[in-house]
Amino acid sequence: MKKTIKINYMDFGRYSDPEKEFFTPFLRQKYNVVISDKPDYIFYTLGGNTHHTFPGIRIFWTGENVVPNFNYCDYALGFQHMTFEDRYHRLPLWRMCLPDLEKAIRKSVGRSDKSLLQRGFCATVISNARQTDGRREEAFRKLSVYKPVASGGRWQNNVGGAVKDKIAFQSRYKFALAFENTYAPGYTTEKILQAFASDCVPIYYGDPRVSEDFNPDAFINAHDFQTIDQLVDFVQKIDRDDALYLKMMRAPVFKNGKLPDDLTDEALLRFFEPIFDAPLEQARRRFFAKPYQDIDYENLKMRDVKAMIKAVGHKQIKRLNVFSKRK
Questions:
Q1: Is the CA virtual torsion 236, 237, 241, 243 positive or negative?
Q2: Are 39 and 27 within 8 A, CB to CB?
Q3: Is 0.90 topped by the overall pTM?
Q4: Domains in the chain and their CATH numbers?
Q5: Could you tell me if 107 and 118 are in contact, meaning their C-beta atoms sit under 8 angstroms apart?
Q6: Phi, psi of 33, deg, nearest 5
């Protein structure tokens, strides 16, 4: 008999479906998971503040470049390479993109050398145009001098509009430019994985420790070069040498052809077992004995508004004093 656990999700956004969130089907491998309006455990993220007063076990997860605050949560899952007793497990966003992961593992399977080589040069799909980094723009511009880079997102779009299917679009090209929006050790999103899933050689920049997750023989790591010019020169070298390109294209996504040990299903289940197998009072790790608000956003906003009103008031009074003295 599987143990029954009552869970729910908070602040995952209005379109979140608790039955389809990653953790629900994953935990059902071992537990009878019930999505409850009165849960004992919640998963929460950065989409709101409703988790603040939840009295039960709080498990924080983020797909953003944010460090967990263990004053607010009992447990956390994130990008960082760190340890914190039994309260943290590394789970980068790409590991949760299961359809893309399956495609990436099978990259280039069933495709002939000829079909891989007879494609366009390079593609990219950048949707968040507000967070383009200077290095990404420089790489795009300098690669485009060598050969046109097809941009299928809203940023620098040159294919007649934003594409609907990123994987299908990128699969028509040999390389995919996969630069993160922000950069930090361990912060690896779906970008490199989707490049692999598109049967491309990723040109990656972001996580300086990315080669600990992925096979360095299977992609071009911009961190290996001191300048973007050196990176572009290397891409040109691979593009012009069919044997080198195919060697990189046929290399497995992961070293030794398997996921890193700490990112396997077994490792994640080992993290969850002390949480869900223990009595609730033992599973609690926060240091506060009663429900609390970790950040009172409304009061902070009102404090800022009151401060502005006060500052404007002082300014007006000062002007009146100066005016009265002149009289």
A1: negative
A2: no
A3: no
A4: 4-91+262-303 (3.40.50.11650), 96-252 (3.40.50.11660)
A5: no
A6: -90, 125
